[in-house]
Amino acid sequence: MSAGTGCVPAMGTKLVVGTSVCKWTVSYFALAVVWLLLAEVLMVAGFGFPHTDFGGPDTLVIVHMVCVGWLSTVLSGALFQFVPVLVAKPLYAERWTLPALALLTLGLIVLLAGFLALGGHFNGSSWLLPIGAGLLVAGFALVVANLGMTLWSARPLPAPARFTAVGLACICVTAALGGTFSLVLSGTDVGALWPDLLLSGVPIHAIAGLGGWLTFTAMGVSYRLLAMFMLAPDGDAKLGRLAWRSGAAALAVAVVGGVLALWRATGLNLVLLLAGAAALLSLAGYGSDVFGLFRTRKRRALELNTRMSLLSLGNLVAAAILGAASAAAGSLQSHAGALAFLVAFGWLTGLVLANLYKIVPFLTWLETYGPVMGRAPTPRVQDLVAERRASKWFVLFFAGSWAAVFMLSIDSALGFRTAVALVTLATLGIGEELVRARRLADVAESLRLPLGATVPHLLVSRN
Amino acid sequence: MTDFIDVDVRPILRAGGEPFSIIMAALERLEPGEGLRLLAPFKPVPLFDVMASKGFAHRDAELEGGDWEILFKPRDGSLEAGEPAPVALSDDDWPEPAVRLDNRDLDPPEPMVRILASVERLAPGQTLSALLSREPVFLFRELSKRGHQWRGGFTPQRDAYQLTVKVLA
User: Fold this and answer.
1) Triad A159, B165, A231: Cα angle to 5°
2) Residue A17 pLDDT class (50, 70, 90 cuts)
3) Is the peptide bond before B32 cis (omega within 30 degrees of 0)?
4) Domain B4-74 carries which CATH code?
5) ipTM attached to this prediction
6) If one looks up domain B91-167 in CATH, what number appears?
7) Nearest CA of chain A to the CA of B65: how many Å?
8) Is the pLDDT of residue A234 over 70?
9) Which of A60, A416, A455, B73 would bridge with B79, disulfide CB 3.0–4.6 Å?
10) At residue B153, what are phi and psi to the nearest 5 degrees?
């Protein structure tokens, strides 16, 4: 039982203040999309893998643009808005969100400069990498502290929030390892203490980042979003339990076992095998949960964002199967690029773009029409978008991503660049749809601006 | 037969006024043995307790159009002799909901839209109750901006969220 402001709560009630639109969430989204486009343009231009070495500095530029600039930024912005909704508590410190964005952005720029210097593109200081990594660690620390304190205030956590908690722990591991790598790569005296760190540390850095922080958090969030948009009951306490337990176990084995293996220099094979098995179990649990939600849904015709989310989820399953198959065949090393692209674009980028296509119109609608709702006729959230027009961009996006994965797997560098060009075009198209939603460009003129409503700013929300 | 003095608080509530003092003033003017006939836009449950403590039994009836007629009669009179005065629960100090909504099967954010639209049509002091499939976190902010009060919580089975909103009196 809870009670609102102004009334005397009866016995056993708590005071609820509700959630508002996080002011800087759209700023996170906008900056993230810019990083995505930049990374795509560089790939089209032939920068990094497959033209250069998979682990080389140029590829690291692209990988960090996509994983930090695009995916981590967009996920942080979404979590600032979504974690309070998940746990029905206000965000711990809204005022930390803008400094965190500034630190992440600046840190990434310096880090990328460090990689470019490392690759011999210009003559930069060897301290660029550690400074960039330090700024990134500070930015992620602000994100983790803010979300962590919000979660802490809401214990015991509902299932989707538990996924986020594990994701936050994983980004700490990723950032800490990344920080140490930067010392090694910079060739400083401190880094010389761990000469072998990169070799065995990079897989853990990647697993904790892509698997723990990005994938596991996205899985947790998708439980609530899918249930909400498919009108499926998600009150069962057992929902998500298998996926969470085995996923958390997989990550714990990979991270703790990985660090131990580093320490004892025993190699990572056993650790990765155990973690991989638990991860497959987690994905199986997740898949069957989502299928259950789909089967019990009350909404028959699904909206574009839900259909595209399910499609990207199919890509995650495909990546898991292909990954397991190539690991069994001993060809994981040669397919790593194609698999990484499938995970980063087919699964994560696809899922994020599909959900941005719902979240941005919703936040815009809430900000614009919330104050006049019930007092004047207002459009529905669906009236802010044109699904038919947008769906062609999503089709192009997924087709382009699959083509890119195929081209990587047959080692066709030119084919890969052509496919990514399609993905870039689709990203631009989806970006334009988001700007149109923000500008209320598709709302019928008679409903667009009732008395008391104003067009929102493109890059910041009023709250 | 008991004589009843009419008190219609509907226009007072509609104008945003406070009817309690007017009802009490009318009570002061009653002759011994006289009763009070109250017309209200909702069932004024909290008042029953107050009136019982002053020695009045009551009988209520819903009128066409959703308004209520309540007869208050001195307890020594002949109105349903022996009927015990209803005991208000501690949580029940708000009037009975004037509107009930079942928003469980609506697409988000339609539940929020419907609640705000219905609340706009209520008179001051009236309440609305709604069943939802989840806690309406974005609605709370809008309600408090408009000065309304609310109480809510999950049902014991946790399969629905029960919300009551009281319009700013």
Assistant:
1) 40
2) low
3) no
4) 3.30.110.40
5) 0.79
6) 3.30.110.40
7) 22
8) yes
9) B73
10) -175, 160
